[in-house]
Amino acid sequence: MADNDTALTQLEGKNPIAEALAAGRSINRVYLLESAKGRASDLSKLADECQKQGAVISYVNRARLDSMAETQAHQGIIAEIAPYDYQDLDRILEHCESQNIAPFLLLLDHIQDAHNLGSILRIADGAGVHAVVIPKRRAVPLNAAVAKASAGAVEHVPICRVNNLTDTILALKKQGFWIFGTDAAATLHYKEADYGGPIAIVIGSEGEGIAQKIKGHCDFLVSIPLHGKVNSLNAAVASGIIVFEAASGRNQS
After folding, report:
1. Does a structural domain hold residue 3?
2. What is the pTM (predicted TM-score) of this model?
3. What is the domain range of residue 31?
4. Are 106 and 129 in contact (CB under 8 A)?
5. What's the CATH code of the domain at 176?
6. 173-199 residues labelled b (16+ CB within 10 A) or e (exposed)
7. What are the backbone dihedrals phi and psi of residue 195, each rounded to the nearest 5 degrees, phi first?
């Protein structure tokens, strides 16, 4: 079920490019601030490392970098890089089974904000999630903004892209997974849920939450009690609260 795009993608800033380099991604070209040429700095050192792995270095002025940038923090370096290598979910599950590990998955229902997706990937990495599953359609692409917000986690968390999230959930249920969804109206407190065994936690989109059809396939719906004036949390914050609670419970079991 692995799926790869063919066009080059763009990374911006020292940390995302360094993480991609460490992960073995193929870097095609690096655009570097011309004032860094010939100077001993972290920026020039990173460019040298990219060049050693075959990247072409182009020195450009700040105006050119600013015009190319998709984020507001290119830090004087932009790289054209091979597209992200999506992972095969079945292979990840087979590996977990071979290691006698109960899989812990995070399913994202149409997350379309790059900063939310990047933050969720960072959360998934920190919590030990085995894979993040996203749908092919109506999901933000893995672009420079996602990589920046993830603080490099995009290079380390297996990401699987599937044709249909509902079909994936039904297949996981047949394999013994418990599916958890979030719902503000749910009566089950997120701290009272049992997150042991093979589980998948579904996080809904920023505006609409989990689609009703997908919500209907969840075994448990959990809520995060709120006590302030604002009656909702963004996707990344809700994900962090529930995912780390689940991770904590699993580590104690």
Report:
1. no
2. 0.81
3. 9-81
4. yes
5. 3.40.1280.10
6. beeebbbbbbbeebeeebeebebeebb
7. -100, 20
